[in-house]
Amino acid sequence: MTQDQYIETARLQAAIESYLGIEGNLIFDFLQENNQTKLNLITVNRRHNQSFLFHSLIGIDKLDALQKMLDYVRTYREQESSYTIQWAEPNKKELQTSYFRAKNMYEALDKFYYGRDVNSITVFSIVLNPVA
């Protein structure tokens, strides 16, 4: 990667963070798959100290994946439904609430459980939020 590519990578990541309004709470997880780059954008909620998948996509390379992610974050509210998931960790009585954008409830649950054992958190409800 050239110096200009590093600068463009930083610019695109900052634009995504700024657009979402969650600077410092995003993880850009890049993976190489079949000569392409997969980008998993992960959010970190500092209130309950959990991470969740925001969106995943594939690009030709890192810059292409970041540009596609920026395009996605600019339009995802119009493309996907909003879901509320209420959940709790085992042995903790406090009920937590998290919000996801997804095509359907199964995709919302996939984002919720991304990177964790399904038995590590108990989901009490998943609700499709009304369109405002």
What does this structure look like?
The strands form 2 sheets. The protein has a 3-stranded antiparallel sheet with strand order 1-2-3. A 3-stranded antiparallel sheet has the order 5-4-6. The protein has 2 domains: 1-79, Double Stranded RNA Binding Domain, CATH 3.30.160; 80-132, Ubiquitin-like (UB roll) (Roll), CATH 3.10.20. It is globular, with a radius of gyration of 16 Å. The model has no long low-confidence stretch (mean pLDDT 93). It has helices at residues 3-20, 62-79, 105-113; strands at residues 26-33, 36-45, 50-59, 81-88, 96-102, 122-128. Helix 1 (3-20) runs parallel beside helix 2 (62-79). The termini are far apart. The chain has 132 residues and is α+β, with helices and mostly antiparallel strands.
Give the strand order, joined by hyphens, for the main sheet: 1-2-3
> Count of helical segments?
3
Q: Share of helix among residues? A: 25-40%
Q: What structural class results from the helix and strand content?
A: alpha+beta
How much is the radius of gyration in Å?
16 Å
Counting structural domains, the number is 2
Number of strands: 6
The N- and C-terminal alpha carbons lie at a distance of 44 Å
- Net shape: globular
Low-confidence stretches: none
- Mean pLDDT rating: 93
The CATH class of the largest domain: Alpha Beta
SSE order: HEEEHEEHE
CATH architecture of the largest domain: 2-Layer Sandwich
Main sheet overview: 3 strands, antiparallel
Strand content: 35-45%
Under CATH, the topology of the largest domain can be stated as Double Stranded RNA Binding Domain
